[in-house]
Amino acid sequence: MSSRVNFLPDERFLSLRSALKERLHKMADVLTPENIGGILDVRIENVLRDAFDRVGADEGSLWLLDPEKEHLVIAYNTGAQASEIVGFKQPVGSGIVSTSLASEQGFAENEVYKHELHSRLLDDKLSLTTYAMIVVPFYFLNACRGVISCVQLFNVRHEADQTVPAGPIPPGFDIEQLNLIKRASLIISDLIDYRLLRVTVGWDGH
User: 24 falls in which pLDDT band (50, 70, 90)?
Assistant: First the structure.
């Protein structure tokens, strides 16, 4: 029979808890879409890429709320046009990604291009069409600070003011794939919290 190890807080560190929390939150407050790449190490990137591959996404993004809390900004992307996508700003209140941020709920949507909540700003910028999307809240230090999204893309043509498929239709996403991206988001949250804590206490262990 296996037994569980129950670690208790070390009383020597209890008096430092408030100072540690204050320092961690100050560090979080200075993280922006432009500089968060400094803590997205290879382990975090691998978690993202593996999750996107497993759900059959063409690409995925990590969006961070800007300091003014007016836009969600793509801070990381796995697609072929990542250099054009990173830095893209979506106004808060526009699109499915903003709905996920505001509600702190995850969504798996198919036929997104027909969805009234879908914003075409990024599609139009890249001349792409989103067929399916998963978007989940993204947390670190116990606060929702952005979202993680992934998409399936396809080609369309326009006929009589309607958008119709012009090639193979992607399989779409389901609830199991949504839950997989949710789990990946939680793992990344823990990895970022650990990274910030390690820097705060000056621990260089790996």
Answer: very high
Phi, psi for 76 (deg, rounded to 5): -155, 140
Burial class (CB in 10 A: 0-12, 13-18, 19+), 200: middle
User: Has residue 7 been placed in a domain?
Assistant: no
Neighbours of 170 (CB within 10 A): 18
Distance CA 168, CA 51 (A): 23
H-helix segments, the chain: 11-14, 17-30, 42-54, 82-85, 95-103, 121-126, 175-201
Helices H / strands E in the chain, number of each: 7, 8
**Identity of residue 35:** N
Q: How many domains does the chain have?
A: 1
Residue 129 domain flag: yes
Evaluate if residue 206 carries a pLDDT over 60: no
Query: Which candidate, 191, 13, 148, places its Cα nearest to that of 199?
Result: 191
For the domain that residue 86 is a member of, what is the CATH number? 3.30.450.40
25 located within any domain: no
Average pLDDT, the chain: 91
> What does the alpha-carbon distance between residue 181 and residue 135 come to, in Å, rounded to a whole number?
8
Of 79, 83, 87, 81, which Cα lies nearest the Cα of 58? 79
